[in-house]
Amino acid sequence: MTSPHTAQRIYFLDYLRVVAHYIRKYVDWSAAKTLAVAIPMFLVGYLIVALPFYWQLPESYPISGPIELAIAWERSWCFATTGVALTAIALFLLFRLITKPCRIYPLFEQLSKLSYGIYLVHIFVLVAVFDTLNGLGLITPVMMILTSIATFIISALIVKLLSLIPKSKYIIG
Description:
This protein is mostly helical. It contains seven helices and no strands.
């Protein structure tokens, strides 16, 4: 049986797919208008997500407590929240500005094709990357950024290599 949280995520992701399709098919704004809408929308969405998290952080580190404390802190980052929806829609609008003639289009096209596989693989890579980088004694913001970047790059490379195997589309999407 599917948990209510899983069902909520699936519904929310389906909603974002519909929004992305709508933007791709029907939104034909100038670059200036797109930026004027997308950038404030992204910032508002980020603030809705990030501020509750930062307001809950204690003033001293390291933090010790039950796992429920960490779960409570991360509630604002959940999939089906207004802030996440605003940032996702803003990113869809910004990605709309990338057109075929530009130099970075092939990279985004390739990442687009690999994105589902990256999504499937990233959690396994994340654990290994975090365990590797955790011993370096980096401050938390640097650790978060490096872990994110390394996880994304390694996941993309793994999925790209898997995509070279015949019939791999049935494994990685």
